[in-house]
Amino acid sequence: xxxxxxxxxxxxxxILIAIPKEISARDFYLNASKKFKTQESIQLxxxxxEQEKGHEASLRKILKDIEENIIKIKNSK
Amino acid sequence: xxxxxxxxxxxxxxxxxxVAYKGKVYDVTNSKxxxxxxxxxxxxxxxxxxxxLALAPHTDEVLKSFEVVDTLEIDxxxxxxxxxxxxxxxxxxxxxxxxxxxPLGLFFFAALMQLLFLLTSLSSFELSAxxxxxxxxIMAIPAISAGFLSWWxxxxxxxxxIFKNKITFSIILVLIGITGIVIRVTNPxxxxxxxxxxxxxxxxxxxxxxxxxxxxxxxxxxxxx
Lengths: 77, 225
Prior knowledge:
The complex is a heterodimer of chains A (77) and B (225). With 77 residues, chain A is mostly helical. Chain A is 87% helix and 0% strand.
């Protein structure tokens, strides 16, 4: 799908703002995992933390794609 | 192999399709789920998938059926940078939201005191206004500095609309504050006259309110929107 420059800039801003939220969420679960002693509880929060790490990685990948598209549009003008 | 070399094995144009997971490089060239180096229209060969597997509907068991062809060399200097330390510091103490409330409240307090002075002509209100305005302006500087720190470590100094707005209006806020203080300090009797300086001074005190609100609104969008 073709996006306009304005749409891409808006998408970039949303993704950019979302990344620190994923990092905070990961730290939140990692800290939570330290409060428990049973392996089951620890694994639960570590698994949630891993998922947040995955979200962060996905967002960074999307951000990179958006930035590449922005450069392409700017260069074509 | 290094990440750069791994990226060349993207499964396209006859290249092998390699993916990395937890330091091991797997050859997925012959997998029907990695045709042309693309997996589920989402992941591309030539990448380190360590962080992504937690989101997959399968476990890392699926990788056992593939041959390990190499190990992935991680650049330690990138994983333990000074920025990482600053990020940890920022996430623990979050100085920007901590510091921003003082100037915000004090600018409003200064305007309220000045309004009461204009209504009652009591000099104690006028003095309260300038003291509050002075402290608010001074306190805005560390708050804005912490904002720049947050912008750098959390958002890679990206100049999207929201950050441009916050930076521009924060600078205007401080300039208005300094100008107001200079006018008031260089004209101690300003409040007993109806001079142009008195009018400008009042405009500056009240003009800061929508600016403060706008900056706070933009900050709220980053946090909550």
